[in-house]
Each structure stands twice: as structure tokens, then as C-alpha cells.
Recover the amino acids of this structure.
């Protein structure tokens, strides 16, 4: 299985729409529109092109040449500017095969190389054990829990905070 992380480009717009409309949205942010349309993809890809290497690292995840997900580390602002937040999703057919564990390893290396970060933070809904395991396998340490911090699909979730230091 060949795993690649590739920079976004406007020619990837249809694949981004397909993934955003097909991904399990149970643990995703509501800021990702549904249905996801061409204009949404144009905005996202344009933002990544503008911010790439300056305020974040943004990649599509390809498995054997097929678009399987997306991953990014976005640098925070103000007094938090030496911290980056990691975010990702993977289509269900690629889950449980080590794809995201490898993608997280690679994006963290890229982010620490390209950005002036001291740490990367991962925020995960408490019941999302798969995502929590991916972070832990990559050296992220559980740092705390924000109780009743997430309101998603008429349910309340605790938010688990993970951190990985540059070291």
C-alpha cells in the first residue's frame, strides 16, 4: 500500500467534494458544509494555497493513487502562535489499515520542519477512540479533557486534548 501526502491544487476540487460528501461526519466540525459543493472546494483549496508553509501545512491523503482523506496542521494566532492544531479525516474504506497513523507521522514532521511550532495540539471527541489511538501512536500525550465542550448532532461530548512537543 502506497501512502502519499500531496499539496492541494484546484484540479483536485472534484475529489475534495467527493470526499467531503462521502466521509462519516460523526466527529467532524460543523464548519465543513454539507452538501459540499464546488464553491466550498474552491474556497478551501484557495485558502490552503495562500496559507501553505506560512500558517499551515495542508495535504490530501492518497492511497495507491486514490484520494482517501485530508490532513492539516494550522498554526494558531496571538499568544498561541507557536502551537498548531492538527485536523484530519479518512474515508471509511481506508480505516483500520494504518493509513492515518502514517499520515499523522508525516504531517507532524513537515509541520515542525516548516513552521516555528513548539507543539501540535489534537482535539478529539471523547468517544472517537480510533482518532485518539492514532494520536497516541504518534507520540501525542493526553493533556486533559474539556467536559461537555462539544455540541454535535443534538449530543454533548467531552473533548480530549492531546499534545505533541517538537523535541
Amino acid at each position: 500500500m502506497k501512502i502519499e501526502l500531496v499539496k492541494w491544487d484546484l484540479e483536485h476540487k472534484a475529489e475534495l467534494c467527493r470526499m467531503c460528501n462521502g466521509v462519516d461526519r460523526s466527529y467532524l466540525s460543523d464548519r465543513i458544509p454539507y452538501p459540499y459543493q464546488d464553491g466550498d472546494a474552491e474556497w478551501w483549496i484557495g485558502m490552503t494555497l495562500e496559507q501553505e508553509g506560512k500558517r499551515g501545512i495542508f495535504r490530501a491523503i492518497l492511497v495507491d493513487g486514490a484520494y482517501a482523506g485530508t490532513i492539516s496542521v494550522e498554526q494558531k494566532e496571538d499568544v498561541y502562535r507557536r502551537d498548531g492544531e492538527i485536523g484530519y479525516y479518512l474515508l471509511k474504506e481506508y480505516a483500520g489499515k494504518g493509513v492515518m497513523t502514517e499520515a499523522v507521522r508525516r504531517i507532524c514532521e513537515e509541520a515542525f520542519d516548516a513552521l516555528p511550532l513548539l507543539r501540535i495540539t489534537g482535539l478529539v471527541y471523547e468517544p472517537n477512540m480510533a482518532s485518539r489511538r492514532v494520536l497516541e501512536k504518534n507520540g501525542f500525550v493526553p493533556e486533559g479533557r474539556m467536559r461537555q465542550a462539544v455540541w454535535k448532532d443534538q449530543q454533548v461530548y467531552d473533548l480530549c486534548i492531546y499534545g505533541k512537543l517538537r523535541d
